[in-house]
Amino acid sequence: MTSPTRISLDTSAPGPVVPRRLFGTFVEHMGRCVYDGIFEPGHATADDAGFRGDVLELVRELGATVVRYPGGNFVSGYRWEDGVGPRDQRPVRLDAAWHSTETNQVGLHEFAAWAEQAGLELMEAVNLGTRGVAEAADLLEYANHPGGTALSERRRENGRAEPFGIRLWCLGNEMDGPWQIGHKTAEEYGRLAAESARLMRFIDPDVELVAAGSSNHEMPTFGEWERTVLRHTAGLVDHISVHAYYEETPGDPASFLASGAALDAYIGEVADIIDEVRAERGITTPIGISVDEWNVWNQTRWNEVDKPEVFTGDWPVAPRLIEDDYTVTDAVVVGSLLITMLRRADRVSMANLAQLVNVIAPIRTEPGGGAWRQTTFFPFQLTAAAASGHVMVPVIDTGVIPTARYGDVGAVDAVATIAGDELSIFLVHRGLDAETPVTIDLDRSAARAEALVLTVPAGGDRHTVNTASSQPVAPASLAVEVSDSAVTLTLPPLSWARVSVRLNPGTNRVTA
Ligand code: AHR
């Protein structure tokens, strides 16, 4: 048993509204995310369009709200026109981003119809790598203009009479990265993003635009990139992106489990730059942070082992790329990153778990076989299902865990949301060795409470994963006690939990 944790919640002073777009996800034409992932004509569950029914069911169950598409690095070499019109006339192309062959059997029309079925808002990325202002504007006109022009009539001839009405648009992807097709300096990208934004807004004033921030916090240009890009685009864009992937360094699980602290600091630094540029330019409109790629990803293995092999081999269709098998530890980190983003909902306007199927994904599939939930599926699903109303940032009194990378972090981290009398508390316990008793003090009386926990399953260890044939990692119920205005429970070591409390109606009740 480690030192007890005390969490205090003041329900009379709720924070920002929970941005439901925080539970976005990402489908890239990469590896087996689209082909042999969501799309597999000939699979026993496939519909007439070729999309797998079993995968669609799992996507619905995951409860995501937004889907970013079609990349990622892929978009920086993509011609959107290749993916529209009769399928048998679509060109087969090299995809230089992932050293693969792109068949274009899935494009805007098929994907938008699938996203609609899955209940996902489409967030479309334009190519600012090999292409520019004109092609971005063409795609927008094709997608959103009602009719009567060459591009909008082409959409109608291709089977979509009504506009797609896509509101969210990413202005390119990771343009600061030398690996990116058409990589640019901050000046070059800032100008291009600003001019693309200007024309896109002329065509459709209702669009919401995301400027590409740094590819990661460790980029040598991080900070200056955001400042320069925002000086060009502030007033024209609504969000700037943050991409954040975390992995375990051998022998240092404590730092990995503290990844939320790193993301918190990253968000804070970008928020400061946004404030600085808005003040400098006298911009009054808000600029949100779109964490539009985040996850656990063993990038060291990809860069050092898999990528060199992939990039010197053939150009396969839908190769197995970065299909990380997620452990219990990874799932706990994913849950803790969601806690961090909810806590920073004052600045984080949306976020996309990268990616959705097979490629560093919560859902895995086998061609002709089954589809299953990885460990990381659960914290995402359980948070997305319950986080609504307003965010509440608790006061947490907990033990301390020293980490090599981020200094001391709290053993327990938590955030809560409140909607009417429904209170949800999301908790992570980063300690690896012992359980910790937790008391949650409320300023209102609780009628009842229940909890679910994700932790090491019986007979497993922190490296246990779910596979096609066996899925031992799943949420289990956790005992909680309610006594008037306190809820108590014990968190196992290495765990993520959701506590759902029904409050008695009180005088200081806040309605969602
Ligand atoms: O999600 C995988 C890749 O990670 C994306 O294509 C790219 O944007 C990022 O570097």
UniProtKB/TrEMBL annotation:
Known partners and oligomeric status: Homohexamer; trimer of dimers.
Annotated organism of origin: Microbacterium paludicola
PANTHER family for the chain: ALPHA-L-ARABINOFURANOSIDASE C, ALPHA-L-ARABINOFURANOSIDASE C-RELATED
Keyword flag RNA-binding: no
Enzyme class: hydrolase
The EC number(s) this enzyme carries: 3.2.1.55
Location of the Alpha-L-arabinofuranosidase C-terminal domain: 292-495
The reaction(s) this protein catalyses: Hydrolysis of terminal non-reducing alpha-L-arabinofuranoside residues in alpha-L-arabinosides
UniProt-recorded Gene Ontology molecular function terms: alpha-L-arabinofuranosidase activity
InterPro entries noted in UniProt: Alpha-L-AF_C, ASD1_cat, GH, Glyco_hydro_b
Keyword Amino-acid biosynthesis: no
Keywords: Carbohydrate metabolism, Glycosidase, Hydrolase
Entry's family note: Belongs to the glycosyl hydrolase 51 family.
Name of the protein this chain belongs to: non-reducing end alpha-L-arabinofuranosidase
